[in-house]
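Troubleshooting: if your tokenizer reports a length mismatch, compare against these two reference records.
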Amino acid sequence: MEQQDRYDVIIIGGAVMGASAAFWLTRMQPGLRVLVAERDTSFAQASTALSVASIRQQFTTAVNVEISRFGVGFIRDFRESLGVEAGVGSLGLRENGYLFLSHSDEGRVILEEVAAMQRAHGAATEVLAPEAVQARFPWMQVDDITAGSFGSRDEGWFDNMGLLAGFRAAARAQGAEFVTDRATGLTVEGGRVTAVTLEKRGTIACAAAINAAGTRAAEICRWAGLDLAVEPRKRTVFVIDAPNARHPEAPLLVDAGYYLRPEHEHWITATVPQDDGPCDPDDFDPDLHLFEDVIWEQLYNRAPGFDAVKVVRHWVGHYAYNTLDQNAILGPHPELPNLFLMNGFSGHGLQQSPAVGRGIAEHLLTGGWQSIDLSDLSVARMLENRPFRERAVV
């Protein structure tokens, strides 16, 4: 194989994680030969495109707070963050905040403990008594809650496809190469990945590979004889019209059995199915019964303005679900140290992509975590069956 066919890094998966890694690698080391292979550049079934596109500081682990602290600044000042002209300006970050509700005294205590940790890392989380929740959001019923944890800044939602487009355009401007091609295999020699096989271009040599394949990440690992505790989980998202509940200032509300946020004149809402489990990666059939059977009654109990509701559209997205602890699995695989993983985000990958892409690039280029210590999210914990659990999974 001729030298020009060899890349420094081949990234499998070109949605937001792969694009972020390509951006940071080529920014940190100009001239690095980076190839990004994406099987479907329409991104029609990508978690990036089907995300509810939100960002929060309210996580229960410090490392996730640190990841989001960097991410929100990067997203807010996106043009300046990229540092090159990518044809994408503002991502339209709308900082309505997140509101987590507790329904027990134990839940209130947990909210208070976690909020203190979040504030220690720079977040603006405050825990409100029920009457304070109602004073701020008078359209809500609060008789059944014990507290609400609210982030008044640095939390909200943004343009998901703008983030992806910006990363891809900036990485390309810095020299990364993007191809529409499906990875079909890894070549492993001497305990290292030496090549990636693509369906159209054949086998291409590399010095390192990155698994950014989202819900298909476990398949890539299996090519090298490795197990990965990541599987696709289906989520049906509903866009609803509630003419008696027009509250564009509302936060993203996380209640006991659903989440809800405003979207222009409508609302976006979803729930976790009671029989939640793995799905086929090609299964995008909606579970339409979930709105009437599970969500609507809870919405009406929370706010009487949801007495008249109509589903105006819906879509299905997949979480790349980490079955061990619902946290990202990051960094080099101990058994193949030049295979880097950025997998298993369990629904919060989009917002974590700026910091995680930077972290993976730093580790690949320097041999260790730099800007943020991401070792709590290492592959080693998966191999050792040592969960590092994130309790605030939405």
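Reference record two:
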Amino acid sequence: MRGGAWVWNRKDRRGMADEDQQQTQGAAAGTGMFENRLRKNAKRLRKWARAQGLTAFRVYDRDIPEYSYAVDLYGDHAHVVEYPRRKAHAKGGTTDTERAEVLAAVTAVLGVPTERISVKTHTPQPWGRSQYGRVGQGSERLVVEEQGLKFWVNLGDYLDTGLFMDHRNTRARVRTEAKGKQFLNLFAYTGAFTVYAAAGGAAGSVSVDLSNTYLDWAEDNLVLNGLADPRHVLIRADAKAWLEDQARHGEERFDLIVCDPPSFSTSKKMAGNFDVQRDHVRMLEHLQALLSPGGVLYFSTNYLGFELKDSATRGLEQVEELTPRSIPEDFHRKEIHRCWRMVAPSR
């Protein structure tokens, strides 16, 4: 009560005690529901992951609205991300209590001790992958396996781990199509797509990212898989500016391109900023200019409100949206990205 005081008689106190007991019972029931779902998912997905050659996969993806968490396994470590809800705790237990219960369930069901669980909170941003930011320092890197390849991940220093697992299906497509081709990875991040292209027998590749940290990480991933080679070039540059310059003045053409830009990006190292909705028409025009005849472009965005303009794909021979087929089986929520496969005309 604002500006006043509560006066409790015996009846008031008994009523509050009863309510507290009901809330505790409700929280316990909810925790049991979460634990049961986690156990059911883990039993099915661990078997599935072994068959797929995965040691990094999602075991819980906000399946139950009351428990808005994503739980991923990275080898013998767990990565837990909380997605805060505005109204989720208007009734019932506190957020701290719920979080403790969720972590206890992760330990009990998945067998991961607390010291090997990384916990983060996803704070919604108006634009972009907020996960790119650094949130810690000095966490030990781990190696995980994915479909016969290996990748370094860091569960503690960044909101993202270094491997976007939701793009696993598209990476597999790239490996299948890469043999003998020149490959471009724009907004390359830690180079997972480049590793897949190189493993698929790409004749050469160019990976472009503004961050030295991520390019070094990409090189480490190539080395880890025995794929480091002068034919696979890593370029530190503003991807948007680099693309514009290459489309206007460059002579190199690519048979296979992956472009997975952030929704919004700005940096002191950039000229201006990048907005995927505002800039995608011009960007796709430039990408078409870099495609060889019959070349393939995979374009993806995690901005779910994105609208692909007709003018952006004018001149392409084929445009196919792969969503939701591009999202792996271990992702319960299919609203994580959108993805297209675009094909240039064969002249």
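Descriptive notes for reference record two:
- The mean pLDDT is 86.
- The longest helix spans residues 10-52.
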